[in-house]
Design a protein that fits this description.
The chain has one domain. The protein contains four helices and no strands.
């Protein structure tokens, strides 16, 4: 379900980016939409991963990697 939502969020962002006026006025918000979709995909990949540590290491968004990595068992507080 998280993957499906991420695809829908990305599609929404792409539709909004098709309008140059929207892009000009809302570039920061459009970037936030993209980041939300990427984070959702990372979470979806983590939930379905055979090896959670490997899934965290494969994440491309450092903030998500750090926050989730710290929450894994065996990590220092």
């Amino acid at each position: 379900m998280l993957s499906e939502l991420a695809v829908q969020v990305e599609a929404l962002g792409a539709r909004l980016c098709a309008d140059p006026d929207v892009v000009t006025r809302h570039i920061t918000e459009l970037q936030a939409i993209d980041l939300i979709a990427q984070k959702q995909l990372h979470l979806a990949e983590l939930l379905t991963a055979d090896c959670p540590r490997a899934a965290v290491e494969a994440m491309r968004i450092e903030e998500v990697k750090r926050r989730i990595g710290m929450a894994l068992p065996g990590q220092p507080d």
